Amino acid sequence: MALILVVEDDEANQELVTRFLKREGHRVLVAMDGMAGVTAALEHVPDLILMDLGLPGLDGWDAAQRIKLTPKTAHIPIIALTARALTEDVFKAREVGCDAYETKPVVYQRLMKKIEAFVNR
Amino acid sequence: MRFVIPSRTWVFVWAGVLVLWLLAALRFDGRILAGGLLALGVWIARREHSRRKLEKDAARYRKLLEMSPDAVLLGRGDGIQMANDAAVKLFQVSSASELIGRRLTDFVTGESRAAMEQVRRDLYSGEMRVPHREMQILCSGAAVHVEIAAASCLDDEGVTVHCVIRDITERKRAEEALRESEEKFRQLAENIHEVFFVVSPAAGQAVYVSPGYERLWGRSRDSLYQNPSAWQDPIHPDDLERVRALTHTQFWGEPVQFEYRIRMLDGAEKWIRTRSFPIRDPAGELIRVVGISDEVTQQKRYEEELIRAREGAEAANRAKSMFLATMSHELRTPLNAVLGFAELLELEMADHGIHTWDSDVQKIRRAANHLLGLISEVMDVSKIEAGRMELQPDRFDIAALVQEVAAGVSPLALRNRVQLQVVCEPAWLYGDRVRIGQCLFNLVGNACKFTCDGQVVVEARPDPGSDGEWYTVRVSDTGIGIRPEDLEKLFRYFTQLESSNARKYGGTGLGLAISRKLSRMMGGDITVESTLGLGSTFTFRFPAGVTPQHGSADREPELSSVDAGSRR
Prior knowledge:
The complex is a heterodimer.
Chain A: E1 3-7, H1 11-23, E2 27-31, H2 34-44, E3 48-52, H3 60-69, E4 78-82, H4 88-95, E5 100-103, H5 108-119
Parallel strand pairs in A: 1-2, 1-3, 3-4, 4-5
Helix pairs in contact in A: 2-3
Chain B: H1 7-27, H2 30-67, E1 71-76, E2 79-83, H3 85-91, H4 110-124, E3 129-139, E4 142-155, E5 158-167, H5 169-191, E6 195-200, E7 205-209, H6 212-217, H7 222-226, H8 237-251, E8 256-263, E9 269-280, E10 286-295, H9 297-351, H10 358-385, E11 394-397, H11 398-415, E12 419-424, E13 428-431, H12 433-449, E14 455-462, E15 470-477, H13 499-505, H14 511-521, E16 525-531, E17 535-543
Parallel strand pairs in B: 12-14
Antiparallel strand pairs in B: 1-2, 1-5, 3-4, 4-5, 6-7, 6-10, 8-9, 9-10, 11-13, 14-15, 15-17, 16-17
């Protein structure tokens, strides 16, 4: 049982990930864009952040970088969600401090296992 | 006229002095006689000295005369008295003696004869010098252009005429040739359609402008000769600064070419192209700038139309790319939701112990995944066909990439009971990791797809002898194999060899075609060998050796999307 922050702009994806996380017994916070994500992370200090990289306004990489550069939130693991594997996106995600990534289409059961591994660490 | 005492008078003077002196000496004493003899001795010695000096001088002047390239003649009223070697040569006689006693006027031809007579009259009537005159003389029948300088002097023997004659035939010929070439140039310049001009950099002004100017510019040339800056007046104000700057460049001795607009007196505009070149003297000094100007209004119009057309095409192409990228994103987003909800449905039904619709949900997931793959590949094909596929080479670890591909394919291998073997030494290569990975994923995926209860071997190694410049990955399977006549069809778009295969094995029929195109974009290739029923070997060869020193080694992918457990 952990507090997970989901930064995602697409409503269908928000609902999906929320339902999968709740099914696993986690509590879920949702932010619609990068700026809201950074604010929510600072306010609630969740146990893990799921970060969509292609966000409107402040994008996922910038948001992740800000969270990792803020002492209060730097320790929170971030799993990035990207449209394509094996790309520049993944390198950039690692450079800004993301801890892992998942490619879309997301296989949720695999994502849940990954989250479990971070939360139980 | 100089006063000259005749020498006979001197003899009487001297004789008188001697008689007076002898009378004086006899009347007085021997001392005066001795003193007189001494004075006489001194006088004789001094005379001897000056005689020798004169002889020496005469020898020197003779030498100079012999060396002179110009003919030198000395004459008197009764003809030529002396002639040097150059004169012998000029008049083409065998020796100087042939000239002695003849008159110069005998050699002068018709036109020059009157002038020569005038010179002669001037000289003998006491004119001391006659300035250089050009004449034609006949030398053994041939007319020769000469320049004659003469001076006369009067001494006790009468008037002597000194005459220097220079052969100027060569100079005349050169002058004639120059005049002819100038005439040719003038005719050419006056008749060409373009405007030809010559500018003096020192004066900063045109020294010649061909008549074409008046036709093309509709202005007179006189203004250009009169006013050094008149050429600027017709130039379009927007172009003037640029043209001025370029004009300065041409005065530095650079060849320049520039285009600008001019305004006609009636307000019409013309585009002019001017090219100019420096002309230097043998010492390398810039002496002239010459150039040609011509009207290029029509060409300019075509150019502008071409540029507009190209800009239009580029805008259309950008719009198409934008459309593709947007479509790609818009198509994927709902499909991701379909896949996600199908997975959720399957899971929640299982939570409630319902398995009635498991296979239906599986079909939804498979179809959606297939559609996603199709979208990606169609996007790739559009990019390749539009020439917009760009490779982004960087340093990467080939072993890590091959492992990642193997891990991605392993669920399929597991399903088909295929033993997947990977042989690859870790090595840093330089290439587009994403696209090389895409090719590998396709080849290894196909091998596992078309093999059942068999073996797939992936061997990746540098080409022997290529010094690391080339790398080859061989993917061999023990699958169904391909008929020889079908081998090349494999690489065409939307080809799966039998339509029943598509249903049985899935796939879009685009993957191999895309992979081969990508490999060829890299400069490499994908080839295939196969035996029907026994299996196939695909060989992917690509250049990989251009490793830049500043490569980013820290870009080793540590993030993994695959669970460690599924790695083989």
